[in-house]
Amino acid sequence: MINFLLILYVGCALAALALGIRHTLHIFQLNSYQYQGEGRYLRTHRLYFFLPLAGLILGIYPLSIRFRSSFSLGEALVLAVLGILFLAALCALYFPRKAKKKLVFTPRVKRLLLTTLLLALIVGILAFSLSEGWVWGLYSCGMLLASLSSHLVLLAGLCNRPLEREINRYYIRDARRLLRSCPDLKVIGITGSYGKTSVKYYLHTLLEAGFDVLMTPESFNTPMGIVKTIRGSLRATHQIFLCEMGARHVGDIREICDIVEPDMGVITSLGCQHLETFKTLDNIVGTKRELFDALKEGSPRFVNGDNEIVRRYGLDQGAVTYGFGENNAYRAGGLSYSEKGAGFWVQAPDGTRAEFHTKLLGEHSVVNLTGAIAVAHSLGIPLEKLKIPVRRLEGAPHRLQPISRGDMTVIDDAYNSNPNGAKVALETLGMFDGLKILVTPGMVELGEEEDRANFELGVQAARHCDYIVLVGRGHSQTQSIQRGVESTDFPRERLYAAENLQDAMEYVGRISTDRKKVVLLENDLPDNYL
């Protein structure tokens, strides 16, 4: 009996240790190896914090045998059974679930895993040496390692920091060397709270007819993502490098600019995004301004002149502005919609004007497109020559991207949402004929503004939608949206809180209607937010 329990216990302990390490590596990778993100995850998933504490107590308790005169067989059996039940609970907690973005065993993850295993070996030896007898040594060792699995990964991350810093410095130096080997390459930095990826994609299409253009793929907008693009894709023939610059902390844009040394800069739109890490709007604006600060005197700089925050902070001073406002250097106007998309005109500072047609949705898309037209025109491409590439534009993936699915049109706006972007997306949904359905998990990383912003999202959704489907039953952001919806006269039977995205889309499929369904997918949170 004792032998059977011991074998079962050791098996459960090894499984819990392996699953715990794997789970923490996955979440840590999704949080970009940032401890602030890991702390937020533990605050919102408290079971992952409190359950291992119970294991620590069970693991430390047998160590007291050394200082006791006796230990009954009954106590041993009770501890063994409790240990097996606890370890089984840990295995269930850490067991892998279907993930949107799977754990990728990059070289960094492999180094992290190796250090974690070394730390586990040290903890195991200490626990074994402090125990009275090999049986209780195995018990304490297994319980402590299983309970500390996530902590060991995070401690390994701290231990590896100097090594990772040196590896990153090597890659950065190599990227700078490659950039210096292309002296005629023009680097265009693009940043903003939102709109930067769209402007990058639009500009790439507009420029590729006349230039050999490299751009950072998808949302590769971190320093190491940009370095990876340069080291893996830059060729001597490239003439322009479109470098999207993302930021979550003060100084992030400056760090990227120190690597790529931009020749031109574009600030799209500014808003309250990533407030959880930036804390204040002043910090957001100051960080985006780092792009302009890095430019040489007289270097071209472009800003969205319609953006209130851009104007309030004076970022439009000395910059080429674009948008619908009459005072913009590149002014758009004549916006009209049809089944084929939008029509508008753009007038350049030299007085030339051209009519454009695009398949893109929404006024904000036209503003972003006007910014791309402004940059392309300043690089010597006449407005008339930009008509065909503008008509050809498909839009950036997951940014108000219309997808036809039989009797349903899906508006894919799944990229990380923000209050202004969500408002625009709902207004775009309102332009469609059909049964309007919103599917959203809400907005995150808005700090103290998160509850208010999601409440307002609920109020706005009630104004534009026939059905509202919330993804993530019981999550703080969906609860805030629900309160916003319920503060209006929106029919309660048309508000549904789904367990996950699959549940949400199954509910959408069950909605009975004679009208065509138009489904707005607003935001799609990664696994570390769910």
Major β-sheet annotation: 9 strands, mixed
How many beta-strand elements?
15
> Percent range for helical residues?
40-55%
Derived structural class: alpha/beta
The CATH superfamily of the largest domain is known as: Mur-like, catalytic domain
Number of helices: 19
CATH topology of the largest domain: UDP-N-acetylmuramoyl-L-alanine:D-glutamate ligase
CATH class of the largest domain: Alpha Beta
Level-2 CATH architecture of the largest domain: 3-Layer(aba) Sandwich
**Proportion in β-strands:** 15-25%
Q: What is the CA-based Rg, rounded?
A: 27 Å
Low-confidence stretches: none
What is the end-to-end distance?
42 Å
Number of structural units classed as domains: 3
Shape from CA axes? Answer: globular
Q: Could you give the order of strands across the largest sheet?
A: 2-3-1-4-5-6-7-8-9
Mean pLDDT, nearest integer?
86
Give an account of the 3D structure.
With 530 residues, the chain is an alpha/beta fold. It folds into three domains: 2-163, no CATH class; 181-392, Mur-like, catalytic domain (UDP-N-acetylmuramoyl-L-alanine:D-glutamate ligase); 401-529, Mur ligase, C-terminal domain (Protein-Tyrosine Phosphatase, Chain A, Alpha-Beta Complex), CATH 3.90.190. It contains 19 helices and 15 strands. The chain has helices at 2-30, 35-44, 47-60, 73-94, 107-129, 134-147, 149-180, 196-207, 223-233, 252-260, 275-278, 281-294, 308-312, 363-378, 387-392, 419-430, 450-464, 476-486, 501-510, and strands spanning 186-191, 213-215, 240-244, 264-267, 301-304, 320-323, 330-338, 341-347, 353-358, 401-405, 408-413, 435-440, 467-471, 495-498, 517-522. It has a nine-stranded mixed sheet with strand order 2-3-1-4-5-6-7-8-9, with helices on both faces. A six-stranded mixed sheet has the order 10-11-15-12-13-14, sandwiched between helices. Helix 1 runs parallel beside helix 7 (149-180). The two termini are 42 Å apart. The relative contact order is 0.08. The mean pLDDT is 86.
